[in-house]
Each structure stands twice: as C-alpha cells, then as structure tokens.
Amino acid sequence: MKDEPINFTELAHFLPKQLDAAKASNRFKFVLYGGSLGSGKSYWLRWMMVYRLMDMWSKYNIRGIRAGLFCEDYPSLHDRHLSKVKYEFPAWLGKYNEQRHEFTLAPEYGSGVIAFRNLDDPEKYLSVEFAIMGVDEINRNPITTFRELRKRLRWAGIKDVRFLCACNPVGEVWVKNMFVKRLFPPEENEQYEFVYVPALPTDNPYLDASYYKSLESLPEAERKAFLEGNWDSFGEAMDVKGYMRLITDREFQACQVSEGIHSGYKILGIDPAAGGDNSAIVLKSGNLQEVLFNQKLVDTMDLVGVVMQTYNEEKADIIVIDKTGIGQGVFDRLRDLGYNVRGVSFGEKADDEMFANKKAELHWRERKWLLSGGRLVTNTGWNEFEYVKYKHKDSKITIQPKEELFKDGIMSPNCVDAAVLTMAVADSVVRNNAIYKNQGGNFYDINDSIYNNG
C-alpha cells in the first residue's frame, strides 16, 4: 500500500503526447493514439487501463470494474504486455495472476481488473462486459472485431465507458476512415465520440539516434508511414491478399466536388439490393456522377417506381441495371413498361481479354474516367471506394469479390456498383444511334441488338 496520494502523471511517466491522449479520453469515448513507430503506444494503453479504472473507482465507488486489453493473438499479447506487466507495475499497485493473465488493483484503489486477452475469436467474449477496452494494433483487426467488442462495452452504473486503441498507419482501412479521415458509415450515431491523437517517434526522447537512422533508411512508403505518420503512403500498395485500391485516397479526394451541373447525355446506373442492403441510383452525364438514391427498400420491386420517377425528373436518356439475381425482375418490369433500359450481368465475359469479367472491365473504365477528369458530387455513398480493390490473377484484372468483403464486415459497395454500370454505355452510342422513337406511346430502341437485352 502506498501511504501518500497517487500522482498518476508521475506514476506513469507519460510523455507529453501520451498525456494529451489521456486527456482526450476524458472527453471522447473512442480514442486512437499513435500512428507511427516508437511513440509508446503499448505502454500508453497499459497505463491507461490503470488510470481509467482508478478514475471510475473515484467517481462511482464501484468495486471490481473490469477493463480488457486486447491484442490480435497470444504471441503479440505476451510480447507487448504480459512480459512487461509484472516488472512495470509496482507491487503496491496490485497483484498479477499469471494463470488468468489478469492484474487486479489493490483494494484501496477499487479492486479493478485488467484482463489481458487475445482476439483470435472475438465471439468468445459475447457474454463478457467491460467498462474499458484497449486494443493494441487495432489496424490488424477487421471492422467486424471492432463491432463485436463494441457490443460488450458497458457496465452497470457507469455512463462514461471508454474504448482506447493504438496502431501504426497501415492495415485495415476502416481504422483510417473512422478515426483519421472521419469517413463514417451512414448508420454511425457516435461519430462525434471518435478522436485521433497522433504521435511521432520524435515525440519520444528515449529513442536512440540509431533507431531514427533505421527508420530513415526504409523505402519511401514505409519511411513516410512509420517515421512521418503518413496514413496515405501505402495508398497504392498491396494488402495482405494481394489487392490494391481501385483509386487511392489522394485520387479520391481530387475527384470530388461539392456541386455540379449535369449536361449532355444522361445515364442512370441502378444497383438493386435485398436482404437489408441499400439499393442505389447514380446519374452520370458528361464528366459528372451523382448519387441520387441510396436507401433500403422493403420490397425490391418498389425500386421500379423510384427509377421511373427519377428517370422522368432527370430526363435521363437510358437506364443501365444490374440484372443479376433480384435485379432481373426490376429490369424485366422496366422493359415491359417501355423504358429504354439495358441489363448487365457483372459475371458475363468482358469485351477485353485483360479483364476477368464484365465487372472488372466496367470498374476499370470507371477508374480511367475518374483519373481523366471525371468528378463525383460529394456524398457519403462514395466512401465505398475505400473498399473497392483489384488485383492481377492469372494475367487478368479482377475485382475483390463481395463475399470477401462480407467476411470483413464490409457491406456491398452499392453506390460504386451503380456508378460503374453507367460505364456500360458510351455517350457516342446514345448519340449516334439516336435510339429513341415514339411508337404507340411506348419507347423502343431501333438498335436493340447493340444492348443485347435478349
């Protein structure tokens, strides 16, 4: 037992940046610290578990509050934390149970528990509750892991639960999106509770000069990331599965505009959805694309009415729809009603042999169009570009399948799919074939064969 009152700043010996992050945790629910090598991320997380447990004991006088400190696997947990706790935490602070991998604060400090755990199977924590969570190298975990942990962040009688994390500026893109870029999914209701506190190796005076020289000797992308804390330096690099972003962050930011005027021929891209997913409508004209609709519908066939209304209001020239699966019914109905509509199946053979299928070909046209001056009217739906990736497989360009995205907890990129569908018809086709004629009140295409509607 320590007789005199505890001065936590002196106890933890936090660096100025670490102290800034600690202060941020007093205000924000979700705090990310670090973003570079050598900034003391793991140390900060360990001692923040102690700090927040003591703070909650002081506020609520509740004993046995539990904090969870997580790593992606046991070897990482041992190397970063377990091997240090029994030597770093003073004996008077509490006791470490090596068998249970738990540190319990002394009774005079509330008997709070820090449970050191790994994330090899996040679902095993479904029946567990924590008032404080810390995740080391959170960028090594998919967003599904974050969502699973978030469900367990609660404690009776405590309203200011906290989720603290740290990592380097690489890995899972959702971390960068939510904490650094502040690009949140539409359903996020706590976006103002997220904060990022950056720190660099130069903020740590205890690092040896030789360590800086090692970082400075890294290849450019790695040097910018690990030494300078640049989250975009690996924008064009491959991920662990061999995929690369269809467009990088820098390219994505460059092609966005706050508003624009549509001119020339207008093409509507329609991506129908079911099962709680959003259906999307994108309008393309000239060098502009705009998300007009991105919502869930109770019945997929309700999309027919939305498309008809949008087509008439925007005075569109042609509709292009993904007719795979549930989209076939929407396509058939629009065609029966006389609308000028083309159906596309992403899985069909590409015109160019360099692509694995039509999906890859249309995505590549979208990429070339954006890099050649195409613009996107700002909309949260475009954030989906963060998750659209490609790779070369068997000498062909292929787009990452949605099934792989679903495994990582990423929803289908409906707005991007709707956008690339507009690439299935060139303006010259709409213009040169002058395809609309009125016959008995219905529209028809005199060159229907060029659309291959069957």
Provide the descriptors you would attach to this structure in a database record.
elongated, 454 residues, disordered C terminus, 33% helix, alpha/beta
Description:
It contains 15 helices and 20 strands. By secondary structure, it is α/β, with parallel strands linked by helices. The strands form 4 sheets. An 8-stranded mixed sheet has the order 3-4-5-2-6-7-1-8, sandwiched between helices. A 7-stranded mixed sheet has the order 10-16-13-12-11-14-15. Helix 12 crosses helix 14 (414-421). It is 33% helix and 21% strand. It has helices at 8-12, 16-27, 41-60, 74-88, 143-151, 173-181, 209-216, 220-226, 249-254, 302-314, 327-336, 358-371, 402-407, 414-421, 427-432; strands at 30-34, 66-71, 94-97, 102-105, 113-118, 132-136, 162-167, 194-198, 244-245, 256-257, 266-271, 279-285, 288-295, 318-322, 341-344, 375-377, 389-393, 396-399, 436-439, 442-445. The longest helix is centred in the first third of the chain and has 20 residues, at 41-60.
Task: Give a nutshell description of this structure.
This protein has 454 residues and is α/β, with parallel strands linked by helices. The protein contains 15 helices and 20 strands.
